[in-house]
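Dataset card, provenance and construction

Sequences and ligand SMILES were collected as paired inputs. For each pair, a complete structure of the chain with the small molecule in place was predicted and serialized as structure tokens. The example below shows a pair involving nicotinamide-adenine-dinucleotide. Curators did not alter the output after generation; any descriptive sentences attached to a record were derived from the structure itself.
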Amino acid sequence: MPAIDVNHPLRVALAGFGQAGRCHAETWATMPGAIITGVYSLRPDVEATDIANVCGPHVPVYSDYERMLAESGCDFVSICTLHDTHAAEAIAAAKHGKHFIVEKPICLTPEDLLAVRRAVDSSGVRAFVGFQEFHYGQLQATIEAVDKGWLGRVHLAEIDYYNGIGPWVPQHWWARTRKIGRSSMLFCGCHPLMMLMLVMKGVKVAEVEAFATKTAAPDFADFEYPTTQVNLIRFADGRLGKVTSCLDSLNPYYWRNTLIGSEGTLIDTKIMSRVMLPGLDTKGWQQLATRSINDAGTVTPDMFRPMFERILANLRHDEPMPYSGFNAAFEMHRVLFACDEAARTGRPVSLP
Ligand SMILES: NC(=O)c1ccc[n+]([C@@H]2O[C@H](COP(=O)([O-])OP(=O)(O)OC[C@H]3O[C@@H](n4cnc5c(N)ncnc54)[C@H](O)[C@@H]3O)[C@@H](O)[C@H]2O)c1
């Protein structure tokens, strides 16, 4: 049964109004079929004017999250606050019977991951996780190329994320801390790990190994955790993945995909396939003309719209939710916590 009546707009409340929250707000505010009914702000004194400009002058601004849940009349919450409050806010949303999207990561510990899972299951709300980058352009095309079988059985997937979260990045003040940013994988590596899980199509992970290091560049010296982590992932059916999460490179944001399969290869936007189309030169590359992922270092509202359209279609018409569904993200977080444990202990970690 659809979660939301198609005859009424989806009443959306927002938690957090930073870079991500503003993108969520601008997207929901311009979408037919949705209205914003309240905003929880961590800094109402600083953000109230901006919130009124984006969401409308009559939208109430709350400095208390629970009050917003109780009073705003929302059906749905976009949780875009800092990492250390995501789990509690997701659980509270579920307890109030509100569907929600939580920005990545869902939480910072395996215990909280299970607690959010239990709250979602027992309340029956629908939950989504903020991986908008798989809903358009290069990464969507890559996932769909695998789904169509153009690479055959992918036995090796290397997904590498290189970014520089130095003091010039607005999020640096909290991203660098163990309390809020927590680890390279939780801050950014969850994106390439999610990509790996999506191209491996839900096959269970058997075992991971991981190693972490950091740059010698002084720009990143105040990070409270190792900024670069390389993870080796063995799937239960024997296939292999490698995920790099590098927050201390000096280049512009760069995402690298290398997928090797039994019928072809895909590297970034180049694809070679023996089965894609008859008549193609099987020794040559085809170029995927598609929006590059490499403009995603700074998020903009247009990047969120395809994901939000799918959320609306899921809530109103029970349409499937690819790429950002809670179950897939839950599995990815289990693997992520195993990777972080492997990096911390220097030992391989098996997943039950
Ligand atoms: N899906 C994506 O691609 C994507 C992109 C960016 C952020 N995110 C996620 O969204 C969430 C929020 O990140 P963000 O980039 O919006 O963070 P942000 O730093 O822009 O803002 C986050 C919150 O921190 C508050 N804040 C900002 N400066 C503050 C200060 N000086 N003192 C106290 N509070 C302050 C803001 O009010 C806001 O509510 C995080 O979970 C992040 O990982 C996801």
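Derived descriptions for this record:
Residues 10-129 form a domain with the Rossmann fold fold (CATH 3.40.50.720).
Residues 210 and 231 are 4 Å apart (CA to CA).
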